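Provenance and format

Records in this collection were gathered into a single text stream. Each protein contributes a sequence line and a token line. The two records reproduced below are adjacent in the stream.
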Amino acid sequence: MNGRTQRAERSDIGQFLTPVAIARFMASMFAPNQFDHVRILDAGAGAGVLFSAYVETLASEGRRPISIEVVAYENDSDILPELNQTMTHCEAACGKVGIAFHGEVRGEDFVAAAIAQTALVGVNEERMMIL
């Protein structure tokens, strides 16, 4: 399968992979870190380019967090090996600068998982207002 066919198939399922340069630009737009512990949820992670760019930014800032936690959802099983590699890369990059890193890849659809979780535990009315 050529690149054009893969892009067309990804487009058909609503999957658009962010170029690294765009991801780095987006990560640079966050305010400087002010937190000791940073938690990132990537609801449609793809290969993990967006969260990886932000982790890279956090690791290179003057005020680094003590820890970073990433939970990445991706329901395309073909891209999960690359996503796992990205998590490993982030863990290594954080380790080099003394940041504790925990990454979790969830090979499922974020929305479907959230609906199932809500059905299991119910909905807190106060939380619904925040969302």
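Adjacent record:
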Amino acid sequence: KSMVKYEGESMEWIPLILRPNEKEIILVMHNEYIFYSNNRKWDIWVKSRELPLYKKGNGYSIIVSEFLMEECGQLTVIDFPNCITLFAFDNSLNYGTYRSDMLMASRMNLKPEGKQPKMKDIVFESDNQHQLMVNKNNELKGMKQVLIKHEL
């Protein structure tokens, strides 16, 4: 409700209309790259019957991590003082495992059918709103039901 929206194939910007005392929510994406000293193109030109000599392994690496925003690129702390920032982190499976009942959209079905794990209920701290992951009959909810409830 409080985030900028885009529509159509050309992703046209839809102006945001805020109520009094309501703040715009700005999405901030976590971006991370790993660069290796031996990064290279694998296709090279060599003389006939000659083999290219490559160094073994990837070599030394450097991790570049930053926060990016559609509005301005790289985030600085004072860019949006009157907004709420919503941080979306890269939660790659490379960083470890998750609890079996952790709420993860990638594990949810669109509809409340089929096989999906029972996920932990959550509370949105901003307005103390509870999100139950099962309905009154103790059946698992699908992603569509959750989004409709939150008018998304």
